[in-house]
Amino acid sequence: MPEDFLPVLFQVLIALGFAVSTLSLSIVFGRSAKRTAMKDTAYECGMLPIGDGAPRFSVKFYLVAMLFVIFDIEVVFMYPWAVQFRDLASEGATALVSMAGFAGILVFAYVYALKKGALNWKS
Question: Which of 49, 75, 83, 86 sits at a 20 to 30 Å CA gap from 117?
Fold first, then answer.
């Protein structure tokens, strides 16, 4: 039985050896380079870095992005239910009622976001 795990052990040893040797070589050869102010600046496709590195985004952008992710994840929860709906429906109406409740909560959350103006870009 232990001989079955021998290839896995070899792979782990080779991976660790590669990681250690790569890090060691980067330490050995990396310290020999001379540091200058020009070498320490950020490289932006040949352009000199002038100004801020990242533009500022409105909070509305992040709010809409979070709402998208939340409602997108909810669709992921609905997909397996839809695939198994025929099997679930044959057992009774419990699956339909539970998904109707789940969808009702989603509709309530969507209406709440609309009422609060979360999707209104101009406010």
Answer: 75
